[in-house]
# Entry
Amino acid sequence: MSQAERADRFALYERAVQEPAVQVRVVEDLFRAAHGRPPADLREDFAGTALFARTFVEGDPARRAWAVDLDPAPLAWARARGALERVTLVEGDVLDVGPPAVPAVDVVVALNYSFFLLAERAHLRAYLARAREGLRPGGALVLEVAGGPELQERGEEATDHGDFTFVWDQVAFDPIHSRARCAIHFAFPDGSELRDAFTYEWRVWSIVELRELLAEVGFARSVVLWEGPGADGEGDRTFVPCERAPAEEAWIAYVVGWRAP
Ligand SMILES: C[S@@+](CC[C@H](N)C(=O)[O-])C[C@H]1O[C@@H](n2cnc3c(N)ncnc32)[C@H](O)[C@@H]1O
# Structure
């Protein structure tokens, strides 16, 4: 059996793509700045294997989280990790979940640009409205967003992780509809490859579109957290409120919608 045939694509994804410690810190800091305490509970939408939710509850034994995904496969994978007493896995559509089935929380997150999967304005708007209903007064919706001209370029970028290579493949971009087709492949030292381990059809939403929609569905205000430059210009993984930003080739930011207290 080749290494690709033996591979666990969810485990590889978590190692190659996700940075839950950075994301948890961003969420704790922004909520603490507004309320003087970190969030007590949250909901992770488009959760996949719920790595963010699992990392969040590890930070304090009193924390609770709900993790929502349409696909039972990553949820089953997460369940098999065990230790999920304080993370409730919910198989469902983010357009439907919320109170009363899933209680209102301090923070709702949609990370790694996963809301780019909602390509129609009406769908994204409905999602943002539903997410707002899932927040307590004073709660925050945290959208992790990516952009920059590099996102429109075709081609593959490989990152070596020692026992495997992560390949990010930007297959196509349509500037008329702002649609991107992307894929993740994994390559292994024995020469085998897991192609199209994950594939995405994205609508690449801009920050200004997101903020307009947040205001339309009733969020009291929105804030953009932009990454600090760092010594090497690669970004320092700290994110601070900004209203002006440099035109970088590729960037990641957080758009935060606050529900009125
Ligand atoms: C790119 S993964 C995100 C994984 C992880 N949250 C992260 O930050 O990397 C996107 C996930 O969204 C799920 N998804 C797509 N549309 C959805 C919807 N309408 N409701 C709930 N989950 C959805 C997919 O099943 C997939 O697991």
Notes: The chain has one domain: 3-148+203-258. The domain at 3-148+203-258 is CATH 3.40.50.150 (Rossmann fold). The chain has a mean pLDDT of 95.
